[in-house]
Amino acid sequence: MRKGKQSTGAPAAMAAPDVVASCQRCRRALFFSRSATFSPKPSSSKDEKHPDNLQAVSWIPAGLQKQLPQEGDDFLMSLYQFFEYAAETVGHDQPQCYECSQEVLHKQLMKKEAQALLNCTAFAQYLHSLEEQIQEEEDDLEDTLKAELLALEEEEAKAEKKLRKYTEHWNQIQDDQAELKLQETKLDGEIEEWQREYNKCKMENFYVTETCAALDQQCLTETEELNRLNNASIYNEAFHIWFDGHFGTINNFRLGRLRSQTVDPSEMNAAWGHAALLLHTIQRVRNIRWTKFQVLPCGSSPVVNPIEGGGSKTTFELYTGAQGVFFAQKKFDKAMIGFLTCLDEIIQQEMARFRALPIANDQSMKVPYPIEGDKVGGLTIKLANNTEEKWTKALKYMLTDLKWVVKLITTQDLYHTQEKLLQLKRDAHGGNV
Question: What is the pTM of this model?
Fold first, then answer.
């Protein structure tokens, strides 16, 4: 495809075509005009506007004319791309002249006609064979249906025989049904009588159930109140052991002495008096036998007596003077050692009792601060050759062990109370709890 040039044999006054190309089949020259509109017929080769050896092609679709390049664009490249698209669409090279296009189209139609004739012949043969097959199947089907008809007639005879048998059985069932109706009427009367008795028993059961529910609720309330009272330890209520900074306290009375914090002697004596009263109460309630010392609570002037033989001869004061000076430091140290010894004996005996219970374990049997002689938690309780800080901490450890043994006793009392309640429930329900 090339740009058109003026033919040497054409008149000089004739205008040159815009684009000239050749037919891809017969190589005949073709003319393409930018201003051409769609026309299915070719221009006459004798048109006085074009040379005799050119054929004007003006069948570019109007839809593609808008895409043709305008003045200054590459018209040949766009036209070349258009013919590539047309060749892919129709299945043969483009461009072609009108006569070549008609010839190619005629050949294609002839091929399609021959193929259609072959298809018609094949369809006719297949239709003939299909009709023969259908006829054979109809014959076979007729024989099959006749055999099935005979089988069905035999089954009909058997079914009639069964029907007569079932009719006789049905008549027997009708007779049995009449007899069952009589029995049903009799049973209905008995059911009504039973229903009345049942309703009566149900009402009685309802009243009993309501009464039992009320008693159970009352028992639950009483049990909760009893558990609350059991969980409330009289020891903790009467002797509250806690701490205040570096000091251990019992009923808010501090026990110890520091240079930075002054503790009134009367407060310390009151603390020793409460501690002695608690220890003496535990010994008396739990029926514990002391072997070395005996603690005697006397308000804010408690004393500790050593046990020698069957009686006590010496008394150790467990309180201070009015000015905070201990009457006799040696006696006071022995009084504190005696108090600690009595506490250790209570701990050991209560641990032996607790160890016999099923709820005992290694964690619950661990004393917070073990007592060894005059030491508790590794610190001596004596004032001699001791600092005030260590002595105060030792007293705090001692009160901690005293609180721990109170908890151990409370746990045992609670366990025994629960066992008694459980036994009472077993007795009330006949052993089924």
Answer: 0.49
